[in-house]
Amino acid sequence: MRILVAVERERGFSAAAQVLGLTQSAVSHSVRGTERKVGAVLFERGRKGATPTPAGAAAAAHARRVLRLLDTLVAEARGAARGAAEGPLRIAAFRSAALHLLPAVLERLAARHPGIEPEVRIVRELGEGTAGEVAAGRADIGIGTVGGTTPVPAGLIGDALLEEPYALVHPAGHPDPRSLPLVDWHENCGSYTRDWWRRQDWIPRATVLTEDDGAVLSMVSSGHGMAIMPALSLTGAPDTVEITDLGAERPTRSVGYVTTPELASSTAVRALIRELRAL
Protein backbone atom coordinates (compact mmCIF):
# COMPACT_ATOMS: atom_id res chain seq x y z
CA MET A 1 0.00 0.00 0.00
CA ARG A 2 2.85 2.41 0.77
CA ILE A 3 4.36 1.68 -2.65
CA LEU A 4 1.01 2.21 -4.36
CA VAL A 5 0.52 5.56 -2.61
CA ALA A 6 4.08 6.67 -3.39
CA VAL A 7 3.76 5.88 -7.11
CA GLU A 8 0.43 7.72 -7.29
CA ARG A 9 1.88 10.74 -5.48
CA GLU A 10 5.21 10.89 -7.30
CA ARG A 11 3.76 9.93 -10.71
CA GLY A 12 6.61 7.55 -11.44
CA PHE A 13 8.27 4.30 -10.38
CA SER A 14 11.77 5.77 -10.16
CA ALA A 15 10.66 8.75 -8.09
CA ALA A 16 8.65 6.50 -5.77
CA ALA A 17 11.61 4.14 -5.39
CA GLN A 18 13.85 7.04 -4.43
CA VAL A 19 11.41 8.28 -1.80
CA LEU A 20 10.94 4.79 -0.34
CA GLY A 21 14.60 3.77 -0.49
CA LEU A 22 13.87 0.87 -2.85
CA THR A 23 14.98 -0.11 -6.32
CA GLN A 24 12.83 0.74 -9.32
CA SER A 25 12.48 -2.94 -10.15
CA ALA A 26 11.16 -3.67 -6.65
CA VAL A 27 8.55 -0.93 -6.99
CA SER A 28 7.55 -2.07 -10.48
CA HIS A 29 7.30 -5.70 -9.32
CA SER A 30 5.14 -4.69 -6.36
CA VAL A 31 2.74 -2.67 -8.53
CA ARG A 32 2.41 -5.50 -11.06
CA GLY A 33 1.61 -7.89 -8.24
CA THR A 34 -1.01 -5.54 -6.85
CA GLU A 35 -2.58 -5.15 -10.29
CA ARG A 36 -2.82 -8.94 -10.63
CA LYS A 37 -4.49 -9.24 -7.22
CA VAL A 38 -6.88 -6.36 -7.86
CA GLY A 39 -7.60 -7.43 -11.41
CA ALA A 40 -7.22 -3.96 -12.92
CA VAL A 41 -4.52 -1.76 -14.44
CA LEU A 42 -3.67 0.87 -11.84
CA PHE A 43 -1.14 2.98 -13.76
CA GLU A 44 -0.61 3.94 -17.38
CA ARG A 45 3.13 3.63 -18.06
CA GLY A 46 4.79 6.05 -20.45
CA ARG A 47 7.74 8.32 -21.05
CA LYS A 48 6.21 10.88 -18.70
CA GLY A 49 6.05 8.40 -15.83
CA ALA A 50 3.12 6.55 -14.29
CA THR A 51 -0.32 8.10 -14.51
CA PRO A 52 -2.99 6.57 -12.28
CA THR A 53 -6.02 5.14 -14.04
CA PRO A 54 -9.43 5.68 -12.40
CA ALA A 55 -8.90 2.29 -10.74
CA GLY A 56 -5.45 3.40 -9.58
CA ALA A 57 -6.75 6.67 -8.13
CA ALA A 58 -9.48 4.80 -6.24
CA ALA A 59 -7.03 2.18 -4.97
CA ALA A 60 -4.57 4.84 -3.82
CA ALA A 61 -7.33 6.69 -1.94
CA HIS A 62 -8.33 3.50 -0.12
CA ALA A 63 -4.68 2.69 0.59
CA ARG A 64 -4.07 6.13 2.12
CA ARG A 65 -7.09 5.72 4.36
CA VAL A 66 -6.00 2.25 5.49
CA LEU A 67 -2.47 3.47 6.16
CA ARG A 68 -3.86 6.38 8.13
CA LEU A 69 -5.86 3.95 10.25
CA LEU A 70 -2.67 2.02 11.02
CA ASP A 71 -1.01 5.26 12.14
CA THR A 72 -4.09 6.11 14.20
CA LEU A 73 -3.96 2.69 15.84
CA VAL A 74 -0.47 3.46 17.12
CA ALA A 75 -1.34 7.01 18.24
CA GLU A 76 -4.53 5.89 19.99
CA ALA A 77 -2.77 3.03 21.79
CA ARG A 78 0.09 5.26 22.96
CA GLY A 79 -2.36 7.94 24.03
CA ALA A 80 -4.44 5.44 25.99
CA ALA A 81 -1.33 4.13 27.74
CA ARG A 82 -0.25 7.65 28.71
CA GLY A 83 -3.73 8.99 29.43
CA ALA A 84 -3.49 11.76 26.84
CA ALA A 85 -4.39 12.29 23.19
CA GLU A 86 -1.40 12.53 20.87
CA GLY A 87 -0.25 12.24 17.28
CA PRO A 88 -0.71 14.20 14.06
CA LEU A 89 -4.07 15.60 12.99
CA ARG A 90 -4.32 16.50 9.29
CA ILE A 91 -6.74 19.34 8.60
CA ALA A 92 -7.84 20.65 5.20
CA ALA A 93 -9.56 24.05 5.27
CA PHE A 94 -10.53 26.72 2.81
CA ARG A 95 -8.73 30.04 3.11
CA SER A 96 -11.10 32.20 5.17
CA ALA A 97 -11.79 29.34 7.60
CA ALA A 98 -8.06 28.77 8.05
CA LEU A 99 -7.51 32.49 8.64
CA HIS A 100 -10.44 33.35 10.86
CA LEU A 101 -11.75 30.14 12.48
CA LEU A 102 -8.83 27.81 13.01
CA PRO A 103 -6.37 29.98 15.00
CA ALA A 104 -8.63 30.24 18.07
CA VAL A 105 -9.76 26.62 17.70
CA LEU A 106 -6.18 25.33 17.51
CA GLU A 107 -5.17 27.47 20.46
CA ARG A 108 -7.84 25.85 22.62
CA LEU A 109 -6.99 22.41 21.24
CA ALA A 110 -3.31 22.87 22.15
CA ALA A 111 -4.21 23.97 25.66
CA ARG A 112 -6.36 20.89 26.28
CA HIS A 113 -4.42 18.35 24.20
CA PRO A 114 -0.77 19.41 23.82
CA GLY A 115 0.12 15.99 22.40
CA ILE A 116 -2.00 16.52 19.28
CA GLU A 117 0.02 17.91 16.37
CA PRO A 118 -2.21 19.76 13.86
CA GLU A 119 -1.09 19.90 10.23
CA VAL A 120 -3.14 22.45 8.29
CA ARG A 121 -3.36 22.70 4.51
CA ILE A 122 -5.32 25.40 2.74
CA VAL A 123 -7.41 23.90 -0.06
CA ARG A 124 -9.47 25.82 -2.59
CA GLU A 125 -13.15 25.02 -2.18
CA LEU A 126 -13.57 24.16 -5.85
CA GLY A 127 -14.41 20.82 -7.40
CA GLU A 128 -13.96 18.17 -4.73
CA GLY A 129 -12.52 20.77 -2.34
CA THR A 130 -11.78 19.97 1.29
CA ALA A 131 -14.18 17.01 1.30
CA GLY A 132 -12.23 15.52 -1.59
CA GLU A 133 -9.03 15.68 0.44
CA VAL A 134 -10.72 13.70 3.21
CA ALA A 135 -12.22 11.15 0.82
CA ALA A 136 -8.81 10.65 -0.85
CA GLY A 137 -7.14 10.01 2.51
CA ARG A 138 -5.00 13.15 2.41
CA ALA A 139 -6.77 14.79 5.37
CA ASP A 140 -8.40 13.49 8.54
CA ILE A 141 -10.97 16.27 8.69
CA GLY A 142 -12.02 18.97 6.25
CA ILE A 143 -13.53 22.35 7.04
CA GLY A 144 -15.54 23.63 4.13
CA THR A 145 -18.99 24.47 2.82
CA VAL A 146 -21.49 21.79 3.87
CA GLY A 147 -25.18 21.61 4.62
CA GLY A 148 -28.10 23.18 2.80
CA THR A 149 -27.46 22.88 -0.93
CA THR A 150 -23.99 21.38 -0.32
CA PRO A 151 -24.66 17.99 1.28
CA VAL A 152 -21.97 15.89 2.92
CA PRO A 153 -20.50 13.70 0.16
CA ALA A 154 -21.42 10.02 0.11
CA GLY A 155 -19.10 7.90 2.21
CA LEU A 156 -18.23 10.74 4.61
CA ILE A 157 -19.91 12.12 7.70
CA GLY A 158 -20.10 15.68 8.95
CA ASP A 159 -22.25 18.54 10.08
CA ALA A 160 -22.73 22.30 9.71
CA LEU A 161 -21.04 24.55 12.27
CA LEU A 162 -22.22 28.02 11.35
CA GLU A 163 -24.28 29.91 8.80
CA GLU A 164 -22.57 33.00 7.43
CA PRO A 165 -24.53 35.70 5.59
CA TYR A 166 -23.37 37.49 2.47
CA ALA A 167 -23.12 41.29 2.36
CA LEU A 168 -22.38 44.00 -0.16
CA VAL A 169 -18.88 45.43 0.31
CA HIS A 170 -17.77 48.59 -1.45
CA PRO A 171 -15.39 51.54 -1.14
CA ALA A 172 -16.28 53.57 1.95
CA GLY A 173 -18.29 56.69 1.22
CA HIS A 174 -19.13 55.82 -2.39
CA PRO A 175 -22.44 57.54 -3.32
CA ASP A 176 -23.76 54.69 -5.51
CA PRO A 177 -21.91 51.42 -4.77
CA ARG A 178 -24.31 49.32 -6.85
CA SER A 179 -23.14 51.18 -9.96
CA LEU A 180 -19.58 49.90 -9.52
CA PRO A 181 -18.19 46.94 -11.48
CA LEU A 182 -18.31 43.57 -9.74
CA VAL A 183 -15.15 41.96 -8.35
CA ASP A 184 -15.46 38.22 -7.78
CA TRP A 185 -13.54 34.96 -7.36
CA HIS A 186 -14.44 31.45 -8.50
CA GLU A 187 -14.48 29.98 -5.00
CA ASN A 188 -17.02 32.47 -3.72
CA CYS A 189 -20.25 30.52 -3.39
CA GLY A 190 -22.34 27.52 -4.26
CA SER A 191 -25.42 26.99 -6.39
CA TYR A 192 -27.84 28.52 -3.86
CA THR A 193 -26.05 31.87 -3.81
CA ARG A 194 -25.51 31.81 -7.57
CA ASP A 195 -29.25 31.35 -8.03
CA TRP A 196 -29.84 34.35 -5.77
CA TRP A 197 -27.37 36.39 -7.83
CA ARG A 198 -29.17 35.56 -11.06
CA ARG A 199 -32.40 36.93 -9.61
CA GLN A 200 -30.79 40.31 -8.82
CA ASP A 201 -30.94 42.48 -11.91
CA TRP A 202 -28.63 45.10 -10.34
CA ILE A 203 -25.64 42.74 -10.11
CA PRO A 204 -23.50 42.95 -13.27
CA ARG A 205 -21.28 40.24 -14.67
CA ALA A 206 -17.91 40.25 -12.93
CA THR A 207 -15.38 42.37 -14.77
CA VAL A 208 -12.54 41.42 -12.40
CA LEU A 209 -11.88 37.82 -11.32
CA THR A 210 -9.22 37.18 -8.69
CA GLU A 211 -7.74 34.08 -7.07
CA ASP A 212 -9.13 34.49 -3.56
CA ASP A 213 -11.24 36.63 -1.24
CA GLY A 214 -8.22 38.53 0.06
CA ALA A 215 -7.51 39.84 -3.43
CA VAL A 216 -11.19 40.78 -3.86
CA LEU A 217 -11.14 42.79 -0.65
CA SER A 218 -7.94 44.52 -1.72
CA MET A 219 -9.43 45.47 -5.09
CA VAL A 220 -12.58 46.84 -3.45
CA SER A 221 -10.53 48.70 -0.85
CA SER A 222 -8.58 50.37 -3.67
CA GLY A 223 -11.80 51.58 -5.28
CA HIS A 224 -11.85 49.19 -8.24
CA GLY A 225 -15.35 47.84 -7.67
CA MET A 226 -17.86 46.29 -5.29
CA ALA A 227 -18.27 42.68 -4.23
CA ILE A 228 -20.71 40.35 -2.51
CA MET A 229 -18.84 38.41 0.13
CA PRO A 230 -19.54 36.01 3.03
CA ALA A 231 -19.00 37.13 6.62
CA LEU A 232 -15.79 35.16 7.23
CA SER A 233 -14.12 36.85 4.27
CA LEU A 234 -14.97 40.24 5.76
CA THR A 235 -13.39 39.57 9.15
CA GLY A 236 -10.96 42.39 9.85
CA ALA A 237 -11.97 44.34 6.74
CA PRO A 238 -10.11 47.68 6.49
CA ASP A 239 -11.75 51.04 7.21
CA THR A 240 -11.49 51.87 3.51
CA VAL A 241 -14.40 49.53 2.75
CA GLU A 242 -18.01 49.69 3.85
CA ILE A 243 -20.21 46.66 4.46
CA THR A 244 -23.92 46.95 3.62
CA ASP A 245 -26.52 44.39 4.70
CA LEU A 246 -28.40 42.77 1.81
CA GLY A 247 -31.65 42.45 3.75
CA ALA A 248 -33.81 39.59 4.90
CA GLU A 249 -33.54 37.71 1.60
CA ARG A 250 -29.74 37.74 1.62
CA PRO A 251 -28.01 34.48 0.75
CA THR A 252 -26.04 32.51 3.32
CA ARG A 253 -23.35 29.86 3.28
CA SER A 254 -23.05 26.90 5.67
CA VAL A 255 -19.59 26.13 6.98
CA GLY A 256 -18.99 22.77 8.58
CA TYR A 257 -16.74 19.75 8.84
CA VAL A 258 -16.44 16.37 7.14
CA THR A 259 -14.46 13.32 8.14
CA THR A 260 -14.45 9.60 7.43
CA PRO A 261 -16.60 7.17 9.42
CA GLU A 262 -13.49 5.30 10.53
CA LEU A 263 -11.71 8.42 11.86
CA ALA A 264 -14.79 10.08 13.38
CA SER A 265 -14.28 8.19 16.64
CA SER A 266 -10.55 8.87 16.89
CA THR A 267 -9.49 10.97 19.86
CA ALA A 268 -7.82 13.73 17.84
CA VAL A 269 -10.72 14.21 15.40
CA ARG A 270 -13.29 14.17 18.21
CA ALA A 271 -11.26 16.74 20.16
CA LEU A 272 -11.10 19.09 17.17
CA ILE A 273 -14.85 18.74 16.49
CA ARG A 274 -15.58 19.67 20.12
CA GLU A 275 -13.52 22.85 19.77
CA LEU A 276 -15.16 23.69 16.44
CA ARG A 277 -18.62 23.30 17.98
CA ALA A 278 -17.61 25.69 20.77
CA LEU A 279 -17.21 28.54 18.24
What is the fold's blueprint, element by element?
Elements: H1 2-10, H2 13-20, H3 24-38, E1 43-46, E2 49-52, H4 54-82, E3 87-93, H5 95-100, H6 102-112, E4 116-122, H7 129-135, E5 141-145, E6 157-171, E7 182-185, H8 191-198, E8 206-210, H9 213-221, E9 227-230, E10 241-245, E11 252-259, H10 267-277
Parallel strand pairs: 3-4, 3-5, 7-8
Antiparallel strand pairs: 1-2, 5-11, 6-9, 6-10, 6-11
Helix pairs in contact: 1-2, 1-4, 2-3, 6-10
Task: Give the gist of this structure.
It contains ten helices and eleven strands.
Describe this structure in words.
With 279 residues, this protein is α/β, with parallel strands linked by helices. It folds into three domains: 1-83, Arc Repressor Mutant, subunit A (Orthogonal Bundle), CATH 1.10.10; 86-161 and 255-277, Periplasmic binding protein-like II (D-Maltodextrin-Binding Protein, domain 2, 3-Layer(aba) Sandwich); 163-252, Periplasmic binding protein-like II (D-Maltodextrin-Binding Protein, domain 2, 3-Layer(aba) Sandwich), CATH 3.40.190.10. It has helices at residues 2-10, 13-20, 24-38, 54-82, 95-100, 102-112, 129-135, 191-198, 213-221, 267-277; strands at 43-46, 49-52, 87-93, 116-122, 141-145, 157-171, 182-185, 206-210, 227-230, 241-245, 252-259. The strands form three sheets. Strands 3, 4, 5, 6, 9, 10 and 11 form a seven-stranded mixed β-sheet that branches. It has a two-stranded antiparallel sheet with strand order 1-2. Strand 1 (43-46) and strand 2 form a beta hairpin. It is globular. The chain starts with a helix and ends with a helix.
